[in-house]
Amino acid sequence: MPKQVCVIGLGRFGAKLASTLFQRDHEVLAIDLDEQKVQEMLGRVTYAVEANATSETALRDLGVADMDVAVVGLGSQIQSSIIATMLLKSMGLPYVIARATDTQHAEILHRVGADKVVFPEEEAAERAASLDLSPNYVEFMNITEDTGVHKLRPPERMRGLTLRDAGLGSEAQRHRVSVMVLRRGREYIVNPADDEIIDDGDVLVVVGSHGDVERTFAR
Which pTM was predicted? Predict the structure, then answer.
């Protein structure tokens, strides 16, 4: 369901997040003090406004208090990010996500009310590391420290085999890796059958430990 989202701070993280949310049909209000950054977001979000996010009056005048979610992406502007997060929660925002630069910053953000704290640079580094480790990787998302959801291309040795024969069927699962989705072109096969044949160009979305997935899909 589309939500009303306020994104504060239009650096690389905030701008990308705001435009992506808008593309996914959310109503997005983007705020920054830098006029040029605001101008660059016109047409890429629902509203782009030059305003001071550390002013409760400014936030209320923009209707931020009535929105569903707010994301504070000010990053290196530590004091401003803390004040903005505190104001948003005091105004009654049900869910506030804040970007932190280090663990101390994150702890303060949690203490002033942030519902979730993210470290975009660290998460991007983890994704890049996984992409470097295996040419089969497309993307991954952590569930726990050791387990995640991985989107990848099957190695050539698996092509032409059924999921069962590749050791990925629901009965055997000898690799302890579960296939959630098989993408074939524009078609998405959810919970594919064990006798589904792996074709050239297929992409698998699997869940398992990082070690098991890396061993299973190594060339």
Answer: 0.61
